[in-house]
């Protein structure tokens, strides 16, 4: 019996006659890195927006740890432990790296809405913040103003601030988008490292990333589930190759 942390049942979202997500049955196992892939316009981001309640489904259900959360609000979802990092680097550019992580940690103090806490009350979070920075290899950047950091390091910081919220399920939205080869490699290794003892669901375009670290892959096309399985299974699926327009088996295999 597999331990499923997140499940969708016939999840559907329609916008004025256009079906963006159609009858999606997704099952994410605890402890896995699970990828949601598909061509542009496949409905991946809409799916993420439904899971985090930025959008309300037209029909269907979302279950988290067996509990129906379809009607829950975004803040409730976050408190339950479903935390999403955004596609665009979502950090405070004019604070230091350490200060950014401390803001994520404030939730534990119950002061997350009192942004301007005194330095003293926040400094007790420093040890934990430094632990998180060490986890994402950013210790040396602790005092750097975030805006001055390289792009790939900003994404690492975003993962640290996501971790600060103590996610049971981390949703990563295109974590390597817009990165050079070196940064992609670093962030991929980082995701693998922080996945220990956690569950990660990610939307990702880069097949190298997906093939290297994902336990299971769900392929969406035109809002519907096209295929699901390991990278090896999915990359050999003729429908998947066709969905990637002209992609041959060699292209998908060559992404390894």
UniProtKB/TrEMBL annotation:
<dbReference type="GO" id="GO:0005886">
    <property type="term" value="C:plasma membrane"/>
</dbReference>
<keyword id="KW-0472">Membrane</keyword>
<dbReference type="Pfam" id="PF00005">
    <property type="entry name" value="ABC_tran"/>
</dbReference>
<keyword id="KW-0813">Transport</keyword>
<keyword id="KW-0547">Nucleotide-binding</keyword>
<dbReference type="InterPro" id="IPR003593">
    <property type="entry name" value="AAA+_ATPase"/>
</dbReference>
<dbReference type="InterPro" id="IPR003439">
    <property type="entry name" value="ABC_transporter-like_ATP-bd"/>
</dbReference>
<dbReference type="InterPro" id="IPR027417">
    <property type="entry name" value="P-loop_NTPase"/>
</dbReference>
<feature type="domain" description="ABC transporter">
    <location>
        <begin position="6"/>
        <end position="247"/>
    </location>
</feature>
<dbReference type="Pfam" id="PF12399">
    <property type="entry name" value="BCA_ABC_TP_C"/>
</dbReference>
<keyword id="KW-0067">ATP-binding</keyword>
<dbReference type="GO" id="GO:0016887">
    <property type="term" value="F:ATP hydrolysis activity"/>
</dbReference>
<dbReference type="GO" id="GO:0005524">
    <property type="term" value="F:ATP binding"/>
</dbReference>
<protein>
    <submittedName>
        <fullName>ABC transporter ATP-binding protein</fullName>
    </submittedName>
</protein>
<dbReference type="InterPro" id="IPR032823">
    <property type="entry name" value="BCA_ABC_TP_C"/>
</dbReference>
<dbReference type="InterPro" id="IPR051120">
    <property type="entry name" value="ABC_AA/LPS_Transport"/>
</dbReference>
<keyword id="KW-1003">Cell membrane</keyword>
